[in-house]
Amino acid sequence: MSAEEVYEKKILDRFSDALIAFVVKIITLFRKDWAKRNKSRIDEWRLMLYALNRSPIGIAGLVLGLGFVIVGIIGPWIAPHSYDFSYIMATGKFKEYYLAPPGTGGALLGTDDLGRDLLSLLLYGARVSLMATVLVLPIGITIGIIIGLIAGYYGGAVDEILMRLTDVFLAFPGLILALAFSSALTQRIALAIAHSQFLTSLISSLFGVKPVDALNVAPILSIIVALWIVWWPGYARMTRGLTLQEKNNVYVEASKALGLSSPSIMFRHILPNVLGPIIVMMTLDIGGVILTEAGLSFLMGAMVKIPDWGAIVQAGSQYLVQGKWWLVIFPGLAILISVLGWNLFGDSLRDILDPRTRRSIEFKIKKRKKIEKGEKQ
Amino acid sequence: MVEPLVHVEGLKKYFPAGGFLKKVWVKAVDGISFDIFEGETLGLVGESGCGKTTTGRLILRLIKPTAGKVLFAGKDVTKLRGKELKAFRREANIVFQDPYTSLDPRQTVFNIIMEPLKTHGIQVDDPEGFVTKLLYEVGLNETHLYRYPHEFSGGQRQRIAIARILALRPKFIILDEPTSALDVSVQAQILNMLKNLQKKYGLTYMFISHNLGVVRYMSNRIAVMYLGKIVEIAPAKTLFENPLHPYTKALLASIPVPDPEAARTKPKIQITGEPPSPINPPPGCRFAPRCPYAKDLCRQKEPKLKEIEHNHFVACWLY
User: Fold this and answer.
1) What tens digit of pLDDT does each residue of B278-289 get?
2) Is A31 touching B (CB cutoff 8 A)?
3) Residue A377 — pLDDT band, cuts 50, 70, 90?
4) Other beta carbons within 10 Å of B150
5) Of A38, A75, A259, B133, whose CB has the highest number of CB atoms within 10 Å?
6) Do A38 and B108 touch (CB under 8 A)?
7) Which residues of B touch A39 (CB under 8 A)?
8) Domain boundaries in chain B?
9) In whole angstroms, what separates CA A319 from the centre of its chain?
10) Are B276 and B227 in contact (CB under 8 A)?
């Protein structure tokens, strides 16, 4: 029975069908027989998307999460002003634009103490948060997966050594380590950036800042380096556990009997089978990285001279007692929405990727359809 | 004298089993020797936990033996490394008991069967045609090419597992209870298919099972294992007609007879109790504590395999 026969379709399902058809078409452009060979897999995708479509919370999370990513990508381009534009400097009207409330003369979300447009700052800040997640997670996850796979697959002494190493890293208090790193590393990173034309242009384009300000990204980069160190152990432990479990399946021994090398058994057979929970954890961790990065730049406050959500909150917090709420509330909301979005999506992704819970979702849908049919007769 | 394809000599495997101050070992396989000749099927029977499967894994070097050697076509398998080991993997393989976990759930049938070829660098002109041909050999067809294992029944999965091995054109296959997880009707189909494939490709089998009927149907010679030791080896017919070892007799007596009249007249040898722990096996004959004929000698000294009749070996002090 294919997916089409079982479900009554909702508008979203038609949309997902179109999406899958589009993806399949693109792949077929490069590999001719792909669609024929992977019919079962395409059906599986379809079922996953149908299950997602029936989870309103998951959809809401996906919309918010993707919203964060899209804003992060295009933010610097759609911002009404540059992040270093100041209404005070531009117009000379200090009284009007010093901590102007939302809606004052063109500044939709108000201005800060330097007369900068808060909306523009937030849009630029989205890029910084996005880059932090993009730079932290893939590297942390890759290190974690490799170490976990090796430890779980080989077991014995290898496992013992790698896992004790992981324990050492787990024992580092993340925030304190990051703070220590930022004070130790910031200067060096800044120097490296200053000396390299390539790094300057790379960082200014990645983070959406002017080349002059590339140096000021150094504190954030040192936060990222610190997060690499504290982020992988969780993945290593999880991958190891999953690998130990998966290793018991006879297909691992069968692959060995067929002459496959250990790396190809690990990466071609075990890894794809343990990837589900890792992807879920990654989705939940996107929020975690945004939050940690914002928290650290909040703590470092004055060191961070580029628009970063945490730093904006920190700068604005001193004016909160005067009733200038917008400098804290708006960046706080931005953080809240992006983190919440990914967490909600991650939660429903867990249900979708786990075949058991997905079957129960599918079962519910099918059953309802049957009952409705019965009533008609 | 004909050179055996597989020659096992003094094979031992002890697994560590904890123990705080003194290391404790589970003696899963404790010094067994036998030969398997080209083109024949050697049956290996015994109750659960007697070391049948461990023996199979040792022969294929899936685990390293504690002692002893396994010669495959004259080469010592236990000492193979790198390229030689890989070449050996091409010639000898195993079909596992559980067809539900022996296939990677994320690979299509096509990929499952092609992977060993890619691993061994074997080129085929028309992969799709090649795999389809193999699928026909094991009773499947081209509509199954791009399906995933979960879309198949246990018997079909076992067929896929067999096709995957056949792709490498091996000489020797260990069948580790290949049908014990399947329905009786499917069992017969798979067994007949295995017999036909053996004839067609001149395969040599080692058939591991606890099902005496199946072993008798499949094997030319049968080895009976008890607690890590081989107690009797004989041609299938001889073993069933004239079992010598008391354990073999008891095993054969335990086969249910579907005729109450015949069941009453059947010789009854019953053994009581559980097999002793493989961590601390009894000195002397391992079967002695449960053997109705046990003498003092049996409890003190271990019997060796002796050729009583032509090709009929037994390890028992009664003979």
Assistant:
1) 888 888 888 888
2) no
3) very low
4) 12
5) A75
6) yes
7) 146
8) 1-218, 220-319
9) 31
10) yes
Domain ranges of chain A: 73-353
CA distance A89 to A86: 5
What is the assigned CATH class of domain A73-353? mainly alpha
Minimal C-alpha gap between B164 and chain A (Å): 9
This prediction's pTM:
0.84
Q: Does A249 touch chain B (CB under 8 A)?
A: yes
Q: From the candidates B84, B88, B102, B131, which should be mutated to test the interface with A, based on the most A CB atoms within 10 A? A: B102
Are B93 and A257 a contacting pair at CB < 8 A? yes
The CATH number given to B1-218 is: 3.40.50.300
Contacts with A261 from chain B: Cβ below 8 Å = 119
B192-210 pLDDT, tens digit per residue, is 999 999 999 999 999 999 8
Query: CA of A258 to nearest chain B CA: how many angstroms apart?
Result: 6
